[in-house]
Amino acid sequence: MKSALCSRFFILLPWILIVIIMLDVDPRRPAPQLTSRPYFSPHTVGCGGSRVLLRRSSLGRDAAEKRNESRPPLHPEQRLPTIYAITPTYSRPVQKAELTRLANTFRQVAQLHWILVEDRATRSELVSSFLARAGLPNTHLHVPTPRRYKRPWLPRATEQRNAGLAWLRQRHQHQSAQPGVLFFADDDNTYSLELFQEMRTTRKVSVWPVGLVGGRRYERPLVKNGKVVGWYTGWREDRPFAIDMAGFAVSLQVILSNPKAVFKRRGSQPGMQESDFLKQITTVEELEPKASNCTKVLVWHTRTEKVNLANEPKYHLDTVNIEV
Ligand code: UGA
Ligand code: MN
Prior knowledge:
28% helix, 3-stranded antiparallel β-sheet, single chain, binds manganese (II) ion, 9 helices, binds uridine-5'-diphosphate-glucuronic acid, alpha/beta, 324 residues
């Protein structure tokens, strides 16, 4: 009796094991990522957007949604924090060249969402068609700078950065915040890929050096025992945060928990926008130094030379119309 039971058990055992294994294997589940890869290229989807201000790029949206449906969601720990890059931009002869360089960089960064904000009353055809082919998740916003603020001695891009912040807050108002990091990526700067790796781990507000700024080869936060204790700068050392817009990132959580933090026009001077904004959300003691305790330059405040159009005809002479 006992041996009959035993032999039946051993005959059934392999079948039971096969059934258990079959039930456990989900063919759609992606292979686990062993390390979080900071870079990968092929982005083909546009996503994000908002109902009020603006329209989002619809490129590949259906395809993206279909793909998401067939894939089980990743475990939260496997998800890289999304980097939201807010880029103010305005129409000028070099605009498309600047945006092309920027997109070529961003395309190499995983999980990056580009919030491009045009300084215009309407979306331009140039930027719309550029974004449609950029192969990047993006949101295309626009808001014009009031004429009275278009003066060389006044800060630039205040309204555009605020539109980006408003979109972010609106998009996340009903969800518990997904991990995310925001930074302000002006369209003319130069960004190394390592910079994105550094900023991705921002817990609240992180900082790093910026090259070619403030009349020096670089500016940087001075760090002692892992804390920011001052600033290496050649210009207005009295600034509470003597840092360029390209020198910091803020976690999405901090943006959402400080809903009133915005860039201000009133009383603001060029070079003080960063301090005025950062004062609203953090303190110097709280800053997280990146780039090897702020000893490496991973972003450059490059400025494109004004292009020479002295020989450009007043009226269109060519037989074709070419977008530049
Ligand atoms: C410096 C800082 O790096 C900027 O972040 C800061 O906004 C600026 O000073 C300021 O004074 O407000 P700078 O190179 O002098 O930068 O400024 P731009 O690169 O000319 O402009 C900053 C961003 O605003 C760019 O992305 C640019 O495309 C955009 N912008 C500029 C507009 O959207 N509208 C404008 O009329 C001018
Ligand atoms: Mn600039």
